[in-house]
Amino acid sequence: MPKIVITIPLLPGVQQRLEALPDTEVIMRRSDGDFAEPFPTEVIADADILVCKLPPTNHTEMQSLKLVQISSVGFTQLMPLNLPQRAARACNARGVYDTAIAEWSIAMLVNLARDLRGMIRNQDQGMWDRGERFCTEIRGRTLGIWGYGGIGRETARLAKTLGLNIHVMVRKGIGPRDDSYAVKGTGDPEGLLPDRVFTQGQETEFLSGLDFLVLAMPLNAANTGLIGEPELRAMKPEAYLLNPARGPLVQEQALLRALTEKWIAGAALDTHYYYPMPPEHALWHLPNVIMTPHISGTDKSPHFLGRMSEIVEHNVTHFINGGPLWNEIATADLA
pLDDT band at residue 306, thresholds of 50, 70 and 90? Predict the structure, then answer.
């Protein structure tokens, strides 16, 4: 009899349908979510499926674990579990945050291009300034998206409607994407929207042709510090960097130099190097930077509960019945 331990909230109907599955035990155990904690041994020792934001600190006691479903897109919290060695599978929350993060990115494109921060500073001082830098458009410019998962594809869809050219940087090319959750009508399921696709070895060519660069990839050991001095210097002085992905994708000191020495025009940053960012950090105070406190996509969204519940119900029932899963994380990425 499969035992399922669920520590995140679900829509009542979904919870009831899971509890009604034949020969299945479902334990709902609310967790703080933002802090790892131990779970009672009697609850987790024989659990087959764990649905959580953060796994328990005493995860070694989970001797029957076969599937972990997490409520975040990033999955670094799974690394200590050694899931490949335990022959356990894992899925994340890809698709839940796509629309929110894509909307943040589009908002930042416009705000950076028109120097919204400068206009707000003028407003605070009662200054009337109709300078040219406030009057530009983003239509016709080139947006580069590094990584082309759900967030990248929805960002591309929105940007296309605004008339931007889309360049994409990926490891091996792009194609249809049917094994991931997506909100109906969003994204680029067939992989047809980009005007140009660049692959490994073409990074400098990709970066040099952009007006905006959006990072849209998960953080892992291979891409930590991916953007450093060579990459930032490859960008045009008029280009902007947007990072709603993970702060350490970009080398901190290289970014500070790029912004202060004007290698690039500016940046919008929603993910950071410290949590919280200390108030004295230079990034807070640079006039060409927009800082937001990691809110581009969060579980505080009014849509999170419904979307996450849909993923949980699909993956739990399909796992029990031997069907395909959404958002399965590759074994190599979990190692």
Answer: very high
